[in-house]
Write a structure and sequence with these properties.
66 residues, single chain, elongated, mainly alpha
């Protein structure tokens, strides 16, 4: 759960880092290795994206209160 704008920005940055890591891995890993290593990162990206959407759906005053 994201409680404030600072956490929102940190989560967005973490997603960018994971996406960059996966993009780099696609260039050097075999398809089998990539699929195996990417699944955990993709699952974590999905969870973070859901948290971001939940945060953005809240009123700014609600998310700033915590």
């Amino acid at each position: 759960m994201i409680h404030n704008d600072r956490e929102l920005e940190a989560t967005q940055e973490r997603i960018r880092r994971f996406e960059n890591l996966l993009a780099a891995a696609r260039a050097v890993e075999s398809p089998a290795n990539y699929t195996a290593m990417a699944s955990g990162y993709l699952q974590e990206i999905r969870k973070m994206q859901a948290a971001i959407l939940a945060c953005l759906a809240e009123s700014p005053h609600t998310s700033q209160a915590a």
